Amino acid sequence: MLITSKDVIPYEVMKVLETVRDHQADLVPYMPNIKAVEVIERRELDGNRIELLNHWHGESDVPAFVKKFIKPEMTSWKDYATWYNDERYVAWRLETFYLNKLFTCIGKTHFKEVGPNETEIFLEGDLKVYPEEVPGIPSFIAKKAAPQIEGFIVKLITPNLCNLAKGVKAYLDDNA
């Protein structure tokens, strides 16, 4: 499933980029379905690149049909990100804590100056869900449950990816 989002917010491009890169934990109150973000590792590779590993802890209503198979750690994920500061984008990859094969989600987020104190945030990603990888679900049930499991994962991850600009704007409005 292709995920795209494009929004313009009224803040200078480097302020927006640095907010997203350096203050993800502070953005939690402004993001739907997120309980916490933990910065696990940060490595400055050179003057241009920074690698981050963040753990995102989500919360969402689990569909009744698959509730006994979905564990809380399945609503959390690892975010591997390489920030290219000069080029103003981040390449990212998400994976679950519990089972790395449950889904794959990779993409890039670009930060583009579109005017004085105006930044376009353009996110493009690809999400693939593999419901048959949920432990304890027999294959015949996984096939029937596939739409619900996919819907649950899409509902958990995509609002946070697509609402990033709104969260950053609200955070900067409150903290600028």
Quick overview of this protein structure:
The chain is an alpha+beta fold. It has three helices and seven strands; from the N terminus they run βαββββββαα.
Rg, nearest Å: 17 Å
Number of domains: 1
What is the fold named in CATH at topology level?
Alpha-D-Glucose-1,6-Bisphosphate, Chain A, domain 4
By DSSP (H or I, 4+ residues per run), the number of helices equals 3
Low-confidence stretches: none
Strand tally is 7
Instruction: Give the amount of beta strand, in percent.
Output: 35-45%
Shape field: elongated
Would you give an account of this structure?
It is a single chain. With 176 residues, the protein is α+β, with helices and mostly antiparallel strands. It has one domain (2-175): Alpha-D-Glucose-1,6-Bisphosphate, Chain A, domain 4. The protein is 26% helix and 40% strand. It has three helices and seven strands. It has a seven-stranded antiparallel beta sheet. Strand 6 and strand 7 (118-129) form a beta hairpin. The N and C termini lie far apart (35 Å). The mean pLDDT is 85.
Write the layout of secondary structure elements.
Elements: E1 2-9, H1 13-22, E2 34-44, E3 49-58, E4 76-84, E5 89-96, E6 103-115, E7 118-129, H2 139-162, H3 164-175
Antiparallel strand pairs: 1-7, 2-3, 3-4, 4-5, 5-6, 6-7
Keywords summarizing the entry:
176 residues; alpha+beta; Alpha-D-Glucose-1,6-Bisphosphate, Chain A, domain 4; 7-stranded antiparallel beta sheet; 3 helices; 7 strands; 40% strand
